[in-house]
Amino acid sequence: MGGRTFVVDGGTSGLGLEVARLLAREYRTVVLGDVPEEVALTADALDCEGQVCDVSQPDQIARVLGGVRARYGVIDGLAHCAGVWAGGALQDNSPETIQRTVTVNVLGTAYFLHEAIALLRDQGRGNLVYIGAIATEIPRPGIPLYRATKSFGSSLVESLAEAQGSNSIKVMEIHPGPMHTRLQERVGAEFLDQVYALPEQVAPEVVRLLTLQPEDLYVSGQKVLRADGRW
């Protein structure tokens, strides 16, 4: 196993799981998730470290990332894959759904990036990849709440990327098109797209970005798009 260390938030299912699976084959990998049983199962299956972390709780993020760095010295890359789904017209979403979606996709993203950027700047190097959505580029009337919350993350990442001023810290985002994952199933929503990408098809690109070296080409702030399941 290589000496580099990577953290995958939301790494117990979907794209995050596939990213962690690829990383764990070669590198020290830490999977984060908010369901203890899922974290334990994933860590066992991938033979990697697992930590319970709810991104809506900033103290948990600080404790977990701080602990990982204390153990291994440097965190070479972090992937923020955690998110919740909210489909349907806005008027059909309950107040509870609205609150949960904003809490995880907006506040959780801000909390995670807050800690990740501080950590990378203290180290002086490292990569951060945010998993956005092609929906932020192409309006889809059926998912206004989900699109709005993912747009927050994209806007934040773009500003952070421009603020670093160093190729040693790369802040990037990937905007996948529709992917059939448990994101919808967890809230009882049906996956409706007929053309889509599989998580295992998108994961190699996330890993490529995560594993870039400080001397590699300046890519901070660039978007990688996978529209409708196709490049």
TrEMBL record:
One Pfam short name: adh_short
Record bears the keyword ATP-binding: no
Molecular function in Gene Ontology: oxidoreductase activity
Residue intervals of the Ketoreductase domain: 4-179
EC code: 1.-.-.-
InterPro entries, per database record: KR_dom (IPR057326), NAD(P)-bd_dom_sf (IPR036291), SDR_fam (IPR002347)
Keywords linked to the UniProt accession: Oxidoreductase
Entry superkingdom: Bacteria
Coiled-coil residue spans: none
Homology family: Belongs to the short-chain dehydrogenases/reductases (SDR) family.
Record's protein name: SDR family NAD(P)-dependent oxidoreductase
Species of provenance: Micromonospora zhanjiangensis
